[in-house]
Design goal:
The structure is a single chain. The protein is of the alpha/beta class and about 325 residues long. The chain has a domain at about 10-185 and about 230-255 and about 290-305: NAD(P)-binding Rossmann-like Domain (Rossmann fold), CATH 3.40.50.720. The protein has 10 helices and 13 strands. It has helices at about 30-45, 65-70, 85-90, 95-115, 150-170, 200-210, 230-245, 260-270, 295-305, 310-325; strands at about 10, 15, 25, 50, 75-80, 120-125, 175-180, 185, 215-220, 225-230, 250-255, 260, 280. The radius of gyration is 20 Å and the shape is globular. It starts with 7 loop residues before the first strand and ends with a helix. The relative contact order is 0.14. Residues about 1-10 have low confidence and may be disordered.
Length: about 325
């Protein structure tokens, strides 16, 4: 088994791993969040040739041998790869979401352990929290109930990744850490009505309505559910700070700490896009989890992360990116 020397420096009262000379496997690096993590690695001075991004078409991580090949020779694994989508996708494909994510997560971590990987970041999800978690969600509340039904297969698959990480640390001394991000948004998101989360879905609906000359859009649910949103470039910085500075078994929330109703965020998007048409709510469609907002104090305490981008600024940047690229 390969073990590499750990280089750490003291910075801002945190011990920090220097990533510049590390061989880094970035699963999901070709996706939305992964592309921002890649940019953040490059900005930190990591050479392009030190970053490996397995592409799903050539390297299906549901297959064990592909995980073995991907992990070989790597020192750091940032595991973002997942089968993931919005509430409609969760309702339509619960079996695929359960199987794919369990297989990808379980095999990738085992392959990394066998390859002697120095550090492993496992990206979880806010969907793992119980349906009626008190707001703001504290990491200690994670096991106090069953997740919201529409996203339970996905949330529980991610939750088992946390169990695996803690078990591997206990038995093998494997340095696996776990983060649980809220809903992400930003440039390069997937603006697809079948799989998108709420912000890109609404941006696309409004854009399509404007192009077609329609004076309304339909929005799922009642608008009363609340969510917290984290700008993807900010999330990328939080992920790298955790890789550099966090070495404990407990999962850490990653978010902005700002709760907002779906109705309010849809209205903000409409205002940014100068859409004055009707917002037709569809109460027969699911709202999902009633409320979501994280307690983010541990991320700031443990590795100095606090999201800098206000929602209004992030929405404007996201909408401008969509207008230029679609």
């Amino acid at each position: 088994m390969m073990r590499s020397h750990i280089t750490r420096t003291r910075s801002n009262d945190y011990y920090s791993m220097d990533l510049k000379d590390k061989k880094i496997l970035l699963t999901g690096g070709g996706g939305f969040l992964g592309s921002h993590v890649y940019d953040a690695l490059i900005a930190r001075g990591v050479p392009k040739e030190n970053i490996t991004i397995p592409r799903s078409k050539e390297c299906d991580l549901r297959i064990w041998e592909n995980c073995e090949r991907a992990a070989e020779g790597q020192e750091i694994v940032i595991h973002l790869a997942a089968n993931v989508g919005g509430i409609g996708y969760n309702k339509a494909k619960p079996g695929e979401l359960s199987f794919d994510n369990v297989m990808i997560n379980t095999q990738m971590m085992e392959a990394a352990r066998r390859a002697g990987v120095e550090k492993y970041l496992a990206l979880g999800t806010i969907c793992s929290y119980p349906k009626f978690t008190p707001v703001p969600f504290k990491e200690e509340d994670l096991w106090n109930g069953y997740p919201e039904e529409t996203n339970a297969p996905y949330g529980l698959a991610k939750k088992m990744m946390l169990v695996q990480a803690q078990a591997y640390r206990q038995q093998y001394g494997f340095n696996a850490i776990s983060l649980m991000p809220v809903n992400l948004y930003g440039p390069r998101d997937h603006f697809n009505l079948t799989t998108s989360h709420v912000i890109p879905a609404i941006v696309k609906k409004i854009s399509d309505a404007c192009e077609a000359g329609h004076n309304y859009i339909e929005v799922w649910g009642t608008g009363t559910a609340t969510r917290e949103f984290l700008y993807a470039p900010d999330a990328a910085q939080g992920i790298l700070l955790a890789v550099e500075k966090y070495d404990k078994p407990e999962p850490i929330n990653l978010g902005s700490g700002q709760e907002i109703t779906i109705k309010h965020v849809v209205e903000k998007i409409a205002e940014c896009m100068n859409f004055t048409g009707e917002l037709r709510w569809a109460p027969d469609k699911p709202d999902g989890q009633p409320r979501r907002c994280l307690d983010i104090t541990k991320a700031q305490k443990e590795f100095g992360f606090k999201a800098p981008t206000p929602l209004d600024v992030g929405l404007r940047t996201t909408i401008d990116w969509y207008a230029q690229n679609h």
